[in-house]
Design goal:
By secondary structure, the protein is mainly α. The chain has one domain. The chain contains six helices and no strands. The longest helix is centred in the middle third of the chain and has 29 residues.
Amino acid sequence: MEKILKFIGMAIGGGFGWFVAEFHPSFPLIIIAAIFIFSDAYTAYRLDRRVHIKYPDKTSRKLAKFTSFAFSKTITVTLPKRLYLILLAFIVEHWIFIHITIPLSYIAAGAVCFEQFWSMLENEASCRDDDGESRFWRTLQKILVDKTARHFDIDRDTIRDYDRSQNMEN
């Protein structure tokens, strides 16, 4: 039994060593993409806090919380899919297109980073007051999708109607 466990440990170690040796050029790309993914999760949390401050009676929870469900979705769904895409691009780049220099892994990592950066901009531009915010955020609100409604599970028009009714009362 001890020899079998030793053999299994050696096989796992050898497989891990091969993986690291083969894919080590893609690790910096994976780390950068992971930083962008976690930054997007953080900006989504900040948006949740702004939504709870601006619409306290429209949200089910009293305080914005860092939920383990949302973070686990980032860890189990978003992160593996995006990193798998970068690894597949690296495999195609180095094992399929061996005579052509196309930096597919860099393109895939750039696409992932751009997607996450765009989502971060949407998160930061959403649920901002028109009066007190800078011109930059007001301009982005005209271009980007407002993600505020996602925190209520209601339509964006309902939020606009609510904002108008609050402004009329003041």
